[in-house]
Amino acid sequence: MKSLIPIEQIERRIYLIRNRKVMLDSDLAQLYGVKTKELNKAVKRNSTRFLDDFMFVLSQKEQDSLRFQIGTLKRGQHSKYPPRAFTEQGVAMLSSVLKSERAVQVNIAIMRAFVKIRETISRHRKLAQKLAELEARLTSHDEQIRSLFEAINELLAPPIGPKRQIGFQP
């Protein structure tokens, strides 16, 4: 089934804020095809559905940091109100609040993007773990090879001191 919005386009709009993967209200409004003001009104009307772990308002410092990451906005492009950040659960709750077919389809695409990000992170963790195991194994092998070369060098080194004759001596 082809997605309404490419997952890559959604992934670019997922940010890490307060150690959580979130999407901003303006990005969600654009994806859902509504104005940011309308989206925020719907959230306010249903405030009991949006707990602190579903949605939070960005502080001025977070907003400035985010603006620096995204790039400078032109005059009139940013809201006078601080943006809201929605976690994956908050995004899921938004589709029930907006109640449109587009909201449902966009929500499905967003959920798939969050799942894809989680899978990618999981793969990276597994790869990092395997690299650490390989590095530990190679370190062990390096030590064994080094001791083998030292033993060979000892055997090849000329004897220290005068040679003792073998056999009977009167």
Overview of the molecule:
- With 170 residues, the chain is of the alpha+beta class.
- It has a domain at 7-123: Mlu1-box Binding Protein, DNA-binding Domain, CATH 3.10.260.
- It is built from six helices and four strands; from the N terminus they run αββααβαβαα.
- The chain has helices at 7-11, 25-32, 36-45, 60-70, 88-98, 101-156; strands spanning 14-17, 20-24, 55-57, 84-86.
- Strands 1-2-4-3 form a four-stranded antiparallel sheet.
- Strand 1 and strand 2 (20-24) form a beta hairpin.
- It is rod-shaped, with a radius of gyration of 31 Å.
- The termini are far apart.
Structure summarized in a few sentences:
The protein is an alpha+beta fold. The protein has helices at residues 7-11, 25-32, 36-45, 60-70, 88-98, 101-156, and strands at residues 14-17, 20-24, 55-57, 84-86. Helix 2 crosses helix 3 (36-45) and helix 5 runs antiparallel to helix 6.
